[in-house]
Amino acid sequence: MTVKLEPLGPAHAAAMLAWMQRDDVRDDVGVASEPTMERTLAFIDRALTDDTVAAFAIVDDGAHVGNVVLDRVDRRVGTARFSIYLGAPEHRGRGVGRAATRLALAHAFEALQLQKVWLTVHTRNTRAITAYAREGFRVEGVLRREFLLRGELVDALYMGVLRGEQPG
Ligand SMILES: CC(C)(COP(=O)(O)OP(=O)(O)OC[C@H]1O[C@@H](n2cnc3c(N)ncnc32)[C@H](O)[C@@H]1OP(=O)(O)O)[C@@H](O)C(=O)NCCC(=O)NCCS
After folding, report:
1. pLDDT per residue over 13-34, tens digit each?
2. What is the pLDDT of residues 62-85, one digit of tens each?
3. Which range of residues forms the domain containing residue 86?
4. Does some domain include residue 56?
5. Residue 36 lies in a domain
6. Ligand 1 nearest-atom number relative to CA 128
7. Which of 81, 118, 152, 161 could make a disulfide contact with 136, Cβ separation 3.0–4.6 Å?
């Protein structure tokens, strides 16, 4: 396993669209609108032009396996929101998510000089919560019934990590 991040570009769109159409990805990420190629390309274009977004393809041993995104970058307060997914189940549970999280946090704290990264995750996504906690995120609050999971309203966690809190 050799995990790298590459800037997201139009070449990544076809894989992204296919992953966004998967039920497991949609359930956990919380895809709000029907994924289309037009929306996917618009997201990538925004990521390339909007300085409140830093979006990366996760590349493991040379293959694009998922995406990790920092958005809502607030340079005044020094914060950004974090999100991540690995598109195919065979790439999960092997440490790729944790490695990509570490790289994205390094980008946030070093390149962007932010002081905090935050995320939300539904409470049933125990693998994601464990991965985030291992990389330094702490639970800061419970967002009661703020996540719609297959028609059911479930609680979400607000997690955050401050610069310097990542494990050595
Ligand atoms: C969430 C996600 C990015 C994590 O990446 P990953 O490569 O699968 O996770 P890792 O293997 O790096 O780490 C998972 C950790 O959780 C642990 N874990 C695995 N399954 C678990 C479970 N069911 N319950 C609790 N912990 C679990 C692992 O042991 C590992 O911890 P460890 O390194 O201390 O052993 C990935 O699973 C994914 O893309 N899932 C689908 C989309 C998604 O949920 N995105 C996040 C939305 S908020």
Report:
1. 999 999 999 999 998 998 888 9
2. 999 999 999 999 999 999 999 999
3. 3-162
4. yes
5. yes
6. 1
7. 161
